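Subject: design request, 547 residues
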């Protein structure tokens, strides 16, 4: 699908993004070729080729740049330092295999300080402060991520690729398999293209796929990633911002969070467009992802101008979580404790999801700090259902300092479809929730939510027998004083009707004695209320407004 270049959330970044592919320097047309076998490399899967591959990289760099070619064979190596104007080309039938012992990899401490100082400092490929570099070809990389050494020395498992503070970086065409730690850590990069790559990272844990950390001017296109951790993640582990990012036409599988902005959120996230993404149940093991779309700011950073659209998700437990919190984690031990950040101008559009659990999607801030200007258009979510309404007095914990997980409030929320709290300006247009079994909870709960716009209609119902709010005719609505008058179908006579407030509490329970019913508004405070009647698995829903 084409980039929505006119959308106000992303239009400021489009001109920059469209020039990224031009700015990237491509050497493949008339480049010098430096074959690693000419420098002594042997592709038998057992010879350690680190020195030979490094010699080829150095010679290419010192000659003005070009291609370091990896021909057919299996070439074992430890850390290789990539240098400016050098492209590694892995031919079809060729494999670069990372050494299986952590002792083969040196610690390399980057100049930039970040929260990754707490993680491994080892990698198979490393570059810092370089320009015009890349990993391309039709061959593969094997990171040996299941080796016993990595299991015994978890803190030093190597990244596959770690490129820091570089400009003009490209990954294209290659298959990347089982790194020790994250497959790639791209940090503080200006101009990054990741295209047509296939990642499988089912290692011994921390098996991220595409990691974009404080990078600017990024295009990710036509990639697949099957990972035991986060396959597609944007983060800010330092104060460097992640901005002007376009991710499109990708398929991902995960046991963790399929599409994630976070968990480290020390810097800014802005001008991000994610489009045409398919989320599937992993083909490695049938373990659903913890969350489909997980967006958070919890470490003092900020998030604005984010558009996620045309996403189809199966194999997930919870469809959506948007969170502004205050974990307050410092990005270095000597940094100041961060203040609460902000989330604003986030839009989810044309999202279809089938969840495997009843854990509710949520959009939340914390007391005094609101997630602002959130828009949800054309959302269709299916979940199992079958849960009872929460009891009177049920309290959702604030968990202000909790980590940004979809279960941050526990496994039960008072809403079946979407729970919202501490939100300023929420627009819900053509939002549908379907329960496969009748669910006693209201589909929405609004708690300390300001400026609600449901233009376009929010239609909620059972997946098999959906009954829209037109089944209940209500007047006047909104109302200031007096009674709402309900006109109902005669076959509902004798059924119970429940009136819920925005927090999911049952405020009134009435028995329908005729096809006309009155609900006393004078007993209720100003706000939004929901009425639900269930008959033979059919759910009848309507919204009341008390001025």
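Subject: RE: design request

Done. Sequence follows.
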């Amino acid at each position: 699908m084409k980039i929505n270049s006119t959308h106000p959330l992303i239009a400021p970044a489009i001109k920059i993004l469209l020039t990224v592919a031009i700015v990237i320097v491509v050497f493949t047309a008339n480049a010098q070729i430096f074959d690693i076998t000419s420098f002594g490399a042997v592709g038998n899967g057992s010879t350690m080729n680190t020195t030979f591959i490094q010699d080829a990289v150095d010679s290419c760099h010192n000659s003005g740049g070009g291609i370091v070619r990896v021909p057919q064979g299996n070439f074992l190596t430890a850390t290789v330092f990539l240098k400016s104007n050098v492209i590694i080309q892995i031919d079809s039938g060729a494999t670069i295999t990372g050494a299986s012992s952590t002792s083969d990899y040196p610690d390399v401490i980057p100049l930039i300080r970040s929260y990754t100082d707490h993680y491994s400092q080892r990698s198979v490929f490393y570059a810092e402060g370089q320009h015009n570099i890349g990993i391309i070809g039709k061959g593969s990389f094997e990171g040996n991520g299941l080796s016993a050494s990595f299991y015994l020395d978890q803190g030093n498992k190597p990244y596959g690729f770690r490129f820091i503070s570089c400009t003009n970086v490209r990954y294209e065409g290659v298959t990347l398999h089982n790194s020790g730690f994250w497959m790639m850590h791209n940090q503080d990069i200006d101009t990054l293209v990741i295209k047509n790559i296939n990642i499988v990272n089912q290692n011994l844990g921390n098996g991220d796929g595409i990691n974009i950390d404080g990078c600017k001017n990024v295009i990710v296109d036509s990639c697949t990633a099957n990972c035991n951790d986060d396959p597609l993640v944007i983060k800010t582990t330092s104060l460097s911002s992640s901005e002007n990012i376009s991710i499109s036409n990708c398929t991902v599988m995960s046991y963790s969070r399929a599409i994630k902005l976070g968990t480290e959120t020390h810097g800014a996230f802005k001008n991000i467009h994610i489009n045409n993404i398919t989320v599937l149940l992993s083909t490695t093991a049938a373990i659903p992802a913890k969350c489909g779309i997980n967006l958070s700011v919890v470490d003092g950073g900020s998030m604005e101008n984010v558009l996620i659209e045309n996403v189809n998700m199966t194999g997930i437990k919870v469809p959506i979580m948007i969170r502004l919190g205050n974990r307050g984690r410092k990005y270095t031990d000597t940094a100041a404790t961060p203040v609460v950040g902000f989330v604003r101008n986030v839009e989810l559009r044309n999202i279809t999801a089938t969840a495997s659990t009843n854990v509710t999607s949520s959009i939340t801030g914390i007391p005094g700090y609101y997630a602002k200007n959130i828009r949800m258009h054309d959302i269709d979510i299916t979940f199992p259902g079958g849960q009872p309404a929460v009891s009177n007095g049920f309290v959702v914990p604030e968990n202000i300092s909790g980590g940004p997980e979809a279960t941050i409030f526990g496994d039960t929320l008072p809403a079946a479809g979407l729970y919202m709290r501490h939100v300023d300006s929420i627009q819900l247009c053509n939002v549908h929730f379907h329960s496969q079994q009748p669910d006693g909870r209201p589909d929405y709960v609004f708690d300390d939510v300001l400026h609600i716009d449901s233009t376009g209609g929010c239609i909620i119902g059972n997946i098999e027998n959906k009954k829209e709010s037109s089944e209940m005719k209500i007047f006047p609505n909104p109302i200031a004083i007096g009674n709402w008058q309900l006109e109902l179908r005669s076959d509902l006579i004798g059924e119970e009707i429940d009136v819920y407030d925005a927090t999911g509490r049952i405020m009134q329970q009435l028995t329908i004695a005729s096809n006309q019913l009155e609900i006393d508004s004078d007993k209720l405070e100003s706000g939004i209320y929901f009425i639900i009647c269930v008959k033979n698995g059919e759910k009848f829903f309507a919204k009341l407004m008390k001025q």
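The first strand starts at residue 33 and ends at 35.
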